[in-house]
Amino acid sequence: MPLDTAATTEAPATAPPAFAARAVSVGGSPVREILALTERPGVISFAGGLPAPELFDTAGLREAYAAALSGASSARALQYSTTEGAPELREAVAARARARGLATTAGDVLVTTGSQQGLTLVAATLIEPGDTVLVENPTYLAALQCFGLAGARVIPVPCDGEGILPDALAEITARERPKLLYTIPTFQNPTGRTLPGARRAEVARTAARLGLWLVEDDPYGDLRYEGAHEPWIAAHPGAEDRTALLGSFSKVMAPGLRLGWLRAPAALRRAAVVAKQAADLHTSTVDQLAAAHYLGANDLDAHIARVKDAYRARRDALLAGLGGALPAGSEWNRPEGGMFVWARLPEGYDAGELLKSAVAHGVAFVPGAPFYTGNPDRRTLRLSFTTHTPDEIAEGLGRLRRAFA
């Protein structure tokens, strides 16, 4: 009996539905793309904000993981855990916050998979599509990606060499009615600048007076090479009930741990816990317990002091050689800590175009344009000094000089 060919012929496949608009409207990170370009051997990269791997306390961390995986604790380390995080790690974070003058209990803390996840959780909790978010200009590129994926309308707040201008913040907040302000007040990425204490207090007062959430990101605050620590914005009157403070162990312990934390008012923290449950249930148990063991058995501040000594020398090497490496008329700042120097080339230069020549000469940096909201300053560039020794920095600056020539 012949087959019914009409019945057995397959209809053409129908394409699946389109991606969500947010997935195609937010681009990838140019910084990550530049890092991929610089992975070939011999390139001296001032591009990535990477801690120096030779300064990791590998032995101490190895012992901490061994302790987490030894005896009765091994079953716990390999098991599911609570969303909020291991109690001993939360208490260790709280103790470090109290030592810096911010009253904090373990119950105030949510452990996150890097502080980047903390930012994502806050965005998921607070931002509806179309909500307005204020940022410094320029600002952390991954924060712009995060707010873009949340569907936010992002508006820059005018800044000078010390950060946010409080009067401008008050005017924009009153006019635009934003949901939150995102700020990196200490050794900011990408500029390295630090917001003075008086301005921090004014930001807190403005947020309280006009009804504004504050998201204070502090991945670099422990890396101060000179001067006195500024209190967190979260510690200022008016900010107590409206500040999500983000911190990280990536810059002072090791980024591969992917451990960060969120300190927030109770209602916001509870909402972030629900968002985290939907994202990953909880941060890696074994990594949390290893970090807690490390903090209990080692003096993290002594380790940070050794790291700061090395980074201070690297910063100074970069600053000492920039005048001979950049075109005449260039300007740059002198950060008191952190990982970055921010520079501006003279009129007529485009840092993005010059990057091509730099990579050809075996050196790299990050053009400043991607960090801006709105019209970018294409003459700007970010240089990270932490990854290379002073001698390597001197060699890299020599290559940069030849590339710009």
Helix fraction, binned, reads 40-55%
Q: How much of the residues is beta strand, in percent? A: 5-15%
**Strand numbers in spatial order across the main sheet:** 2-10-9-8-7-3-4
Residue runs with pLDDT of under 50 for 5 or more positions? none
**On the 0-100 scale, what is the average pLDDT?**
94
List SSEs in N-to-C order. Answer: HHHEHHHEHEHEEEHEHEEEHHHEEHEEEH
Number of strands: 15
Q: How many strands, which pairing sense, and closed or not: the largest β-sheet?
A: 7 strands, mixed
- Please state the overall shape, judged from the principal axes of the Cα atoms: globular
Number of helices: 15
Output the structural class: alpha/beta
Architecture overview:
With 405 residues, the protein is α/β, with parallel strands linked by helices. Helix content is 42%, strand content 14%. The protein has 15 helices and 15 strands. The chain has a 7-stranded mixed beta sheet with strand order 2-10-9-8-7-3-4, sandwiched between helices. It has a 4-stranded antiparallel beta sheet with strand order 11-12-15-14. Helix 7 packs across helix 11, helix 9 packs parallel to helix 10 and helix 14 crosses helix 15. The radius of gyration is 23 Å and the shape is globular. The N and C termini lie far apart (82 Å). The mean pLDDT is 94.
